[in-house]
Structures are given as structure tokens and as C-alpha cells.
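At this stage, I put together one protein's amino acid sequence and its C-alpha cells, which the following lines show:
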Amino acid sequence: MLLPVYNGATYLGEAIRSILGQTFTDFEFLIIDDGSTDESVAIIQEFHDPRIRLFHNGTNLGLVASLNRGLKLARGEYIARMDADDISLPHRLERQITFMDSATDIGVSGAWMESFGSGLSTVWSSPLRHEEIVCKLLFESALFHPTVIIRRLPFQNLGLFYDPEFPHAEDYELWCRCSYQIRLANIGEVLLRYRLHAQSLGQQQREGMFCSASHVRRRWLIQLALDNSQTDTFHDALSQWKMEASYSFLFKAEFWLLQLVEANASKQVFPEPFFSREVAERWATLCRHATCLGLGIVQYYRRSPLCAYGKLSLYEMTVFLLQALLQREPPGNIACRK
């Protein structure tokens, strides 16, 4: 287990206890202190467990440097990840190691997680198969970083480390880069509780994360021969689910998504039919967020060529129809324009 920490005293003890209390017990627990100035080190030293290996950076080097140091220090067959403010469920390591032992072709796997701390508990799900994960990587990360487990030797043999040029999206960049050489997977069950709070990295560094992620997505668009400043910006908006409930926006989105399908048919960057299905799912989500347009949005959705690649289930279609019939406002009070 690899856990970097920088001034994480508030939740660190709970995170450590969740690892030491795992049903699978044969592991080393690497904790990298990244120059903390609070009580983090004192809290770690309160745990007298021989599995803990504490290392100090001396000064604050940043998350990427701490992660890369941990990858080099690790001695086990696998390297599992977690952040200092999250909680691993007791059976997490047992479940992930059993999966990796049986799926010997998988180099990195993650799991679903449940967010908490914001008043509402939400399950974050992600695709399970390598082909589905890779296709989703055009838009966003499909492996939740605090849940991943890595097969150590393939990573070391291929010289795979986190790239400091992509701060706050270093995991997304790494999964994209290693997807050419290593198969990815997810376990379709919640194995970690992901804490949301004002001091979390995702809240503090959101702008930097979006910028780094945009550079990662642009590398995919270059391979598809679709990159330019205008298309890159619109693709980023779709990837971040910045939606408008208007026909003008949906027309633009449909045109772009069809371009992606056509470009991939030519360049064969992503596996089919998985890529077309991913794009069709994006189209369905955009339309379902525009139900304030009334029943016309259902007809608009069904007439799109994108529906040939994947359709909503009967249940999903029924809910879509009812919401459009009632002209319900989309989540987030997105402005509705004809």
C-alpha cells in the first residue's frame, strides 16, 4: 500500500486504521511524508505496526514526486494506492489481490468508490473492461486513482512513472500512456470511501487539473487528426459535462461526436464497437439533460445517427419520455433555450 501525505493530520489516522484493519494482512505499508508541518508524522508514529515503512521527503516535493518515490521503494508484487483522507473498506485488498491473481493479463485495476462528506453519499462507477476504459479515456479518467492497484514488475520494466508535467491529472495521463502497453480493468463494486471536503486536492487545484487534463485529451485528438483550438475547447467542455439544454448546443455536440466516430473509423485509435458505444452514451446523456425542451428532445435524440451505435434501455427510455413530458428542468438548473 502506498500512501503519500502532506499536512493531512485531520483525517490521516482514520485512513491508516482502514489499511491496518484489512482482511488481507500480508503487505507493506509505504507512507511518504512530503515535508508535513502539522501533526501528520506524530500521528503515523503512534501506530506501532511493523508493516508500516515511513519515509520523509525532507521538504515538500509535491504529490508526483512522492508517488514516484513510492513506486521505486515498493517491494511487493502489487502496489495499491490511497489518499490520506479516504477510507478503504476492510475487504478491499483481499478483493483486489484475488482479482489480480486470477486476471494475470491485467496490469492496473481500480474499483468503484462511494463519496461522502458533502451531505450526500454517491456511488462513483466506471467501466470494467479494458476496451471500454480506453475509449472513455478520450474524455476523462476511467480509473479512480485512490482505488487502483498496480502490478509492480511490468511498471518497473517499462519505466512507467507519473509525469510531473501534468500536475493534478498525473494519474489520468499515466493511464492514457500505459494503456498502449498494459491492460486495464475495474472491479464493479465499491471498495473505497472517497471523502469530499473543502481542503481536498480536487477542490483546491481544480483549475490546474482541468488544464492538465486538457493537454492529455489533446494528445488523443492529435492521433484522430481532429485537434485545433476550437475543437479542443469544445471537446473539453463535453468531457467536463459543461452542457446547455438548447438545440443549438445539441446540434454542435452531435456534429462533433459524429466527427469522432468518423475519425476513429479512419485512424483506428480506439477499439470498436466500444468507442462508438461510448460516444452514443455521451449523446444520450446530453439529450437526457435537456428534457426541459419537451417531447421534441426525445424525437431529436432518436433521429440522430448516433443512436445506431447504442440505445437507451427500455427503463431509461421510459424515464426520459416521462421527464420530457413533464418538461422537467435538467440537473444544475442548466438554461433551457429552443
About this structure: The chain has 14 helices and eleven strands. The mean pLDDT is 92. The chain has two domains: 2-206, 243-337. Residues 243-337 form one domain.
